[in-house]
Design brief:
alpha/beta, 7-stranded mixed β-sheet, about 45% helix
């Protein structure tokens, strides 16, 4: 049974424009609330303890945020398949990247997740202290990125990376970079793929100033697990081909998915 969208109703349209402001606004409020505690924790706690604490708080903050979206804006998130990874050892988690919500969705279910992030986000006043406390990894220096990723995986983390390097612009997938294959090759850790599906492309790279089509539905599926390869170019090509094949298929409607 699908949700009915009263698209011609002016009140409904106004509600969606209010949601366009409040959905990111709630996120910034949560980040702002954690900011002073993240700054203090980074200086007061030992590195490993601080990282664990920072990752735990980010996960709980993201879960709270998604709960608020479900309560206030009828958003539905089917993330249950991610729970299968909860107790697994170190993994490289590679996902497509249609929306700004992608990392929030993934990390909300993984207690020891470490994200490979844009350096600009790690330097951002709202996100920087929290991401540095949690031991997240910059993507702008390839050697440092590989070394830091290897250290995080050695400690048992789930390393979250988006092979496209940024949000998708040409759907279903942009060209994948070699970063995922390089990290897998240097660490010997397998790559678990995730397939992220949205009912509408909200917070995508080409729709950043358009209101969401509510109710919003999202599902994350576990995809194929790739073993590392010394041939990084071939690995990257195979990974990209897999994502394209899976994301180009017609999938069941997400309209009936529940949180």
């Amino acid at each position: 049974m699908t949700d009915q969208r009263p698209t011609g109703n002016p009140l409904w349209m106004a509600y969606q424009y209010v949601a366009m402001v409040l959905i990111p606004g709630l996120f910034f409020l949560i980040c702002l609330g954690w900011l002073p505690f993240a700054l203090l924790s980074r200086f007061l706690l030992p590195k490993r303890l601080g990282q664990r604490w920072g990752r735990y708080m980010i996960r709980d903050g993201f879960r709270t945020y998604l709960d608020l979206l479900s309560l206030c804006f009828s958003c539905r998130f089917d993330l249950s398949e991610l729970d299968q990874l909860h107790d697994e050892g170190p993994l490289i988690i590679a996902a497509n990247h249609p929306s700004l919500l992608d990392a929030v969705l993934i990390v909300s279910r993984l207690p020891n997740a470490v994200c490979v992030m844009k350096a600009a986000l790690m330097d951002n006043i709202f996100f920087g202290a929290a991401t540095r406390l949690a031991g997240y990894i910059r993507n702008n220096a390839p050697l440092a990125m590989i070394l830091n990723s290897r250290e995080a995986l050695k400690d048992g983390a789930h390393l979250v990376i988006f092979p496209e390097g940024t949000r998708t612009e040409k759907f279903p997938l942009d060209t994948c970079t070699a970063s995922t294959g390089l990290i897998a090759s240097r660490t010997g850790i397998p790559v678990q793929t995730l397939l992220i599906e949205f009912s509408s492309p909200y917070m995508g790279k080409t729709r950043r100033y358009r209101p969401p089509e509510l109710p919003l539905h999202c599902r994350i599926r576990l995809g194929r697990r790739f073993e590392p390869s010394s041939d990084v170019s071939a690995f990257t090509a195979e990974l990209e081909a897999y994502f394209r094949a899976e994301l180009s298929q017609k999938t069941p409607s997400t309209a009936a998915l529940a949180i």
